[in-house]
Amino acid sequence: MLHTMHLDADPYKKIVNGSKTIELRLYDERRRKIKTGDTIEFASSKGTVRVVVVALHVFADFAELYGNLDLLKCGYAANELATASPNDMLRYYPLSSQRQWGVVGIEVRLLNRASR
Q1: Which of these, 15, 12, 7, lies nearest to 73 by C-alpha position?
Q2: Helix or strand (DSSP H, E) at 66
């Protein structure tokens, strides 16, 4: 199954160059349809990229996720790890939504890149 999602320019670049292999999202109704082996097309102002889902890591909230996943794979640079915080995700998903739905780390492998 093919899913489409938007990415800001920086995470898009990191997916394309392979430094980000886990995309963090709310585990809402839309994301619950994603299964291992599915394809995701990430769209950005920089282009589109397709990835295959290799694993889904489901947690109650980003605090639990940050305590269990490799944050380098989630898109943080090595020099950002000391200050990385689950609160970084509050700009995208309020705590009430995290508690309602849970969160997911979508582990992906790059398939190809098609520029717009």
Answers
A1: 15
A2: helix 62-68
Q: In what order do the strands lie in the sheet with 103-114?
A: 2-6, 39-44, 47-59, 103-114, 22-26
Structure tokens at 10: 């920086």
Predicted confidence (pLDDT) per residue in 79-105, tens digit: 999 999 999 999 999 999 999 999 999
Looking at residue 103, which CATH number applies to its domain?
A: 2.30.130.30
Q: Per residue in 75-85, pLDDT tens? A: 999 999 999 99
Report the predicted TM-score, pTM, of the whole model to 2 decimal places: 0.93
Specify the number of domains making up the chain.
Answer: 1
Q: What is the mean pLDDT of residues 28-39?
A: 98
Burial class from Cβ neighbours inside 10 Å (0-12, 13-18, 19+) for residue 79 reads exposed
Residue 64: Cβ-neighbour burial (10 angstroms; 0-12, 13-18, 19+): middle
Per the structure, the complete domain to which residue 63 belongs is given by 2-114
